[in-house]
Amino acid sequence: MSRRVVAQRYGGPEVLAVIDVEPAGPAAGEVVLEVRAIGVNPFDYKLYSGAFGADPAALPLSVGSEAAGVVVEVGDGATGPLGPISVGDEVIVYPVSEAYADRLVVSGDSVVPKPASLPWNEAAGLLAVGATAVDTLDTANIGSGDLLLVHAAAGGVGSLVVQLARARGATIIGTARPENHDYVRSLGATPVSYGAGLGDRVRVLAPDGVDAVIDTVGGDEAIEVSVELVRDRSRLVTTVPGPRLAESGFRIVGILGPDGMEPRKRARAALVDLAGSGDIRVRVARTYALSDAATAHADLRNPHPAGKFILLP
Ligand SMILES: NC(=O)c1ccc[n+]([C@@H]2O[C@H](COP(=O)([O-])OP(=O)(O)OC[C@H]3O[C@@H](n4cnc5c(N)ncnc54)[C@H](OP(=O)(O)O)[C@@H]3O)[C@@H](O)[C@H]2O)c1
Fold it and tell me: Enoyl reductase (ER) domain location, by residue (predicted)?
């Protein structure tokens, strides 16, 4: 039997349960993976929270968009987007929809090679935040010479936005709580504390305003400061859907647009290369046993140490 975490109802982390699943073989075009590490993302708990609907017919809901592991079976004709797949390959799978498991059957299209230099935990936490970060940077058209404000620069997405924006030649101001300022500085941004007076603190660093904003928070303060400081409102971008953000002119990146997951899939090859060469880093904050996924979600919903949470089967 293999083990999988599912949401049995809609609600909080208490609805998660570990179930036994009869191991299935790969169909044509599919690959079977022995999982070594699984990335945890806020989307995972939002999915069963009811934020995206609460259709009883969809239950039990599988959870998890990314993992890393070893290929143990290859179905007929299964190839990856970056080349052939063989038994024994160390790989990353993204995007998938039921990554919280110790064994996965996935489409070859989701399988990319894991660089040997990249530890399992970092590999498992790279692509969901990394591909989202690339999407935000492309949407805001960030390039050399831009002065960019990033809300939540120590977060999973924000930390990748900062590193990738710096590689594009931008200068970055990043919001974070004081405990994370050294970390934000190490990523390549000038840190500022969020909270009352944020606009004034950013204005000291950017007297003429900023060229663009990438928001991963979505709160009133981030919205107001962004609108006040950006010089061109078409360069306000957020990862957090919400009516106030849309009304304020933010472009909301997501997977429901006309191109769906394609921009995220296209981002994978470069991200894996950059992580393999050490040019971008994924900080791992905590690891949890797969059976403790509910605790990981409860912790992620509250203030938590900067970095990815990773589940270990
Ligand atoms: N649209 C998409 O496709 C997409 C994709 C990925 C993620 N997302 C969304 O993007 C958001 C961030 O995801 P994530 O993975 O980066 O989460 P995360 O790793 O939990 O990071 C969130 C960060 O927010 C910071 N924060 C909390 N309150 C803040 C405030 N008032 N002002 C500024 N920063 C604040 C925290 O920083 P400190 O520790 O410094 O306080 C924390 O590090 C989530 O809502 C997620 O669902 C959307």
Answer: 11-311
CATH number at residue 110: 3.90.180.10
If one counts the domains in the chain, the total is: 2
d(C-alpha 249, C-alpha 233), whole Å: 6
Q: List residues near ligand 1 (CB under 6 A).
A: 41-43, 46, 129, 132, 151-152, 154-158, 175-177, 180, 194, 216-217, 219, 222, 239-240, 253-255, 300, 306
Range 274-298 burial, b when 16+ CB lie within 10 A, else e: bbbeeebbbbbbbbbebebbbebbe
Q: Are residues 167 and 220 in the same domain?
A: yes
pLDDT in tens, 217-245: 999 999 999 999 999 999 999 999 989 99
DSSP 115: P
Q: What is the pLDDT of residues 190-213, one digit of tens each?
A: 999 999 999 999 999 999 999 999
Where residue 141 sits, what CATH number does that domain have?
3.40.50.720
Among 85, 95, 96, 160, residue whose Cα is nearest residue 122? 160
